[in-house]
């Protein structure tokens, strides 16, 4: 386990989540509110539908 946990804010953008996941070499991040309370988790799997969505 790590003590220096990387988190994302509730209003974090898709691009920021991707940057944090890849930059820290993790597959998921806790989502925290403005008080630092954990509200959920976002994972690589949560981001896949956007990659698979048709553009246009």
Structural account:
The chain is 34% helix and 23% strand. It contains two helices and three strands. It has helices spanning 14-23, 44-52, and strands spanning 8-9, 28-32, 38-43. It has a three-stranded mixed sheet. α1 (14-23) links the parallel β1 and β2 (28-32). The relative contact order is 0.21.
Structure keywords:
single chain, 56 residues, alpha+beta, CBS-domain, 3-stranded mixed β-sheet, 3 strands
| CATH fold-level name | CBS-domain
Helix tally?
Answer: 2
Please provide the ordered H/E string of secondary-structure elements: EHEEH
End-to-end Cα distance: 42 Å
> What is the CATH first-level class name?
Alpha Beta
CATH superfamily: CBS-domain
**Residue windows where pLDDT falls under 50 for at least 5 positions:** none
Question: What is the share of helical residues?
Answer: 25-40%
**How large, in whole angstroms, is the Cα Rg?**
12 Å
Number of domains: 1
Gross CATH architecture? Roll
Tell me the number of strands.
3
Oligomer: single chain
- Share of residues in strands: 15-25%
> How do the strands line up in the largest sheet?
1-2-3
Major β-sheet, in short?
3 strands, mixed
Round the mean pLDDT to the nearest integer and report it: 89
The 3D shape can be described as: globular
Secondary structure layout:
Layout: E1 8-9, H1 14-23, E2 28-32, E3 38-43, H2 44-52
Parallel strand pairs: 1-2
Antiparallel strand pairs: 2-3
């Amino acid at each position: 386990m790590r003590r220096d946990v990387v988190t994302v804010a509730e209003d974090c953008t898709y691009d920021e989540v991707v940057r944090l996941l890849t930059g820290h070499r993790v597959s998921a991040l806790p989502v925290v509110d403005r008080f630092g309370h954990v509200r959920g988790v976002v994972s690589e799997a949560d981001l896949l539908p956007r990659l698979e969505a048709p553009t246009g």
